[in-house]
Amino acid sequence: MTRARRLPLPGPLAAPVAAPVLVTLFLLWLLAVSLVLLLRGDAHGPAFLAGYAGAWAVFAAAVGALRRVPRRQVVPLLLAGAVAVTATGLAAAPRTSTDSYRYAWDGRVQAAGISPYDHAPADPALDGLRDDWLFPGAAACGRGDSDLAPLDAGGCTRINRPAVHTIYPPVAEGWFLLVHELSPEGVRHKGLQAGAALLSLAVSGLLIGVLRRRGDPRGAALWAWCPAVPVEAVDNAHVDVLAVLLSVGALALVARRRHLTGGVLLGLAVAAKLLPAVLLPGALSGVRRPRTIAAVTLSAAAAVALAYLPYVLLSDGSVLGYLGGYAREEGYDDAGAGGRYALLRLVLPDAWALPAAMLGTAVVSVAVWWRGDPERPWHGALLTIGTAFLLLTPGYSWYALLLVALVALDGRWEWLGVAFAGAVAYLAGPVTGPVGGTLAYGAAAAAVTAQPLTAWVRQMLGLVSKRVRNQREKVAREEKPSRPAISVSGRSEPPT
After folding, report:
1. How far is it, in rounded angstroms, from Cα 283 to Cα 252?
2. What stretch of H or E contains 63?
3. How much is the pLDDT for 7?
4. Mean pLDDT, to the nearest integer, of 455-474?
């Protein structure tokens, strides 16, 4: 006698399983549509920010819906959503940044056998590399588009800061050259966008793999479905996404005690964007052995040095490019010159802001290194970089792509407010001035500190309540009359 095969039950019994999946799919469709409309529209500044905020709201709803999806259906949904959301970044030319035009130019210059650190785009020595895309004709220049920069010798260019040398580190420059060599003729911005989309999907896949190995991969949606990815990583094609991929890989390797390889990847990440240097304390979380510390730090330093070496040998000038000028331009060396250190300047004199930011970052870094969890290095890395963002209050939203990836790894969604605050500072800044960014970063700081502050208050109240209860019990025991002792013979005896 054979056992009858059980068939899945149709109808209402299957609805509890299908409903969360359908709701999540609908929200992902709504998110993709809203992003396409946003990127293909003509909104700028605060109007673009309003649409962007709407996309973030749908993103939050989709992540919430994913929590109800059965475990076996989570990974397919994560991957499908990652592809759909990432692809929306290919819907239009760069919308809110012109950095990718510098990337394309640097790739072209290197392909001609010239160091990108030796000449600014406006240098007449490179006239032979110009074309109508990056250096439009007089008619386009005459329209005065906001994404065109004037040249001192006449004409204009899509490249921002055309009179200064490049700022990008060597791994980033290698990426620009690779994309240039692999891109068909005439694709313009699409080559960099397609490359950035592949990198973004690689980050999503890596996050899913790491989190799935540790239990629940749902946190990967905080990167894979985040609107910052299609807007900043794909549409604007920021090279930060390359640094994010290398950084996540480095922390994943360090967590598995592959310190040497992890250090190398961390060094390559630093040589792609510099910002991942802030992750070093996180990579060393809880590490006390000098040999292990040396394995991470020395391998990272060696990777940075080896990445710079070819450009040092090929360049006539400094390979640091416009780095110092950029720091001055953005107000990092003079707190009174811009919107940096906005939260610190609310309570401190401007002259104290930079030392206070450095001290605060140093204290958190030491605490993360000394007390961090070596099996979860991204926990300390998120705390370190998140603190740095709140102290520095940067005005460029794409810097937070690294923070978004760390949020996905660690699951502490409240830090996403810091990423959105950067978007407010960047998109609304020209209208609101530093006030908009300050308010946004202040709200983000409140969201980040609310949970631990609430937990601390509850702990203190619990300790006070326990002490009061113990005191009452002690008083009750002291006031309770003692019973007379009963002898064996049955007669009461006075208490002793």
Report:
1. 9
2. helix 45-66
3. 43
4. 73
Q: 450 versus 98: which is more confidently predicted?
A: 98
The predicted model gives 138-143 an average pLDDT of: 86
Per-residue model confidence (pLDDT) at position 322? 81
Mean pLDDT of 264-274: 97
Q: Identify the CA nearest to 166 among candidates 317, 305, 278.
A: 317
Residue 118 tokens read as: 């030796």
Residue 340 has which token pair?
Answer: 């940096």
pLDDT at residue 212, rounded to an integer: 95
pLDDT class of 17 with cuts at 50, 70, 90: low
Per-residue tokens: 210? 């790491």
- Which amino acid appears at position 107 of this protein? G
Contacts (Cβ under 8 Å, ≥6 apart) of 369: 281, 284, 285, 286, 287, 380
Instruction: Please state, rounded to an integer, the average pLDDT across all residues of the chain.
Output: 91
Return the domain boundaries, the chain.
Answer: 17-96+188-454, 120-164
Q: Which two tokens stand for residue 302?
A: 């060696």
User: Is 491's pLDDT higher than 60?
Assistant: no
**How large is the average pLDDT for residues 131-145?**
88
Cβ 143 vs Cβ 150: under 8 Å: no
The β-bridge relationship of strands 485-486 and 492-493 is: antiparallel
The fraction of the chain above a pLDDT of 70, given in percent, is 92
Contact indicator for 189, 237 with CB cutoff of 8 Å = yes
3-state secondary structure string, the chain?
A: CCCCCCCCCCHHHHHHHHHHHHHHHHHHHHHHHHHHHHHHCCCCHHHHHHHHHHHHHHHHHHHHHHCCCCHHHHHHHHHHHHHHHHHHHHCCCCCCCCHHHHHHHHHHHHHCCCCCCCCCCCCHHHHHHCCCCCCCCHHHHHCCCCCCEECCCCCEECCCCCCCCCCCCHHHHHHHHHHHHHCCCCCCHHHHHHHHHHHHHHHHHHHHHHHHHHCCHHHHHHHHCCCHHHHHHHHCCCCHHHHHHHHHHHHHHHHCCCHHHHHHHHHHHHHHHCHHHHHHHHHCCCCCCHHHHHHHHHHHHHHHHHHHHHHHHHCCCCCCCCHHHHHHHCCCCCHHHCCCCCCHHHCCCHHHHHHHHHHHHHHHHHHHHHHCCCCCHHHHHHHHHHHHHHHHCCCCHHHHHHHHHHHHHHCCHHHHHHHHHHHHHHHHHHHHCHHHHHHHHHHHHHHHHHHHHHHHHHHHHHHHHHHHHHHHHHHHHHHCCCCCEECCCCCEECCC
Res. 5 pLDDT band, cuts 50 70 90:
very low
Instruction: Render pLDDT for 311-323 as a digit per residue (tens, 0 to 9).
Output: 999 999 889 888 8
Q: Is 24 helix (H, G, I), strand (E, B) or coil?
A: helix
